């Protein structure tokens, strides 16, 4: 996975907020419950987005977090940069220092092309678009049942449907 778990959760939470009918404050508890994320972990992740100016927070009984500006003005790259930084768009796929044209890694040529396409996608894709897709396609933003254990995953991949319901 190219993005950290913190970043994935931050992206999921931002898309969830963008999918709501209007820009309103949402409790972190609600977001954590809807996305099956630890409340305390999500709180720390959302602090990064608040410090980056992507979210605003409000304390009190009707408090919570909200997008700091319209969802059309926040790109996926903005969210990624606020949590993981922009290294994904600049560094070697294998994390090798000094990787470049003069001293490339085995995947340099391919990764440079993909990295450029990924950067373009993330800078042009807005939370508004992602929120609309989440609503229109009725797609899930998180694993509703938590992580699947490896044995169960292997059984499901091998066609054992009884394991998928266990």
Describe the fold and architecture.
The chain is mainly alpha-helical and 166 residues long. The radius of gyration is 18 Å and the shape is elongated. The protein has a two-stranded antiparallel ribbon with strand order 1-2. The protein has 8 helices and 2 strands. Strand 1 and strand 2 (64-67) form a beta hairpin. Helix content is 51%, strand content 5%. The two termini are 27 Å apart. Helix 1 crosses helix 3 (39-51) and helix 1 runs antiparallel to helix 4 (76-83).
Radius of gyration: 18 Å
Average per-residue pLDDT, rounded, comes to 85
Low-confidence segments, given as residue ranges, are 146-150
Order of helices and strands: HHHEEHHHHH
What strand line-up does the widest sheet have?
1-2
Helix tally equals 8
Number of strands: 2
End-to-end gap: 27 Å
**Any idea what the shape is?**
elongated
Strand content: under 5%
| Structure class | mainly alpha
Q: Report the helical percentage.
A: 40-55%
Major β-sheet annotation: 2 strands, antiparallel
Brief synopsis:
The chain has 166 residues and is mainly alpha-helical.
Features:
single chain; elongated; mainly alpha; 8 helices; two-stranded antiparallel ribbon; 166 residues
Break the fold down into its secondary structure elements and pairings:
Blueprint: H1 5-19, H2 28-35, H3 39-51, E1 55-58, E2 64-67, H4 76-83, H5 108-124, H6 127-136, H7 150-157, H8 161-165
Antiparallel strand pairs: 1-2
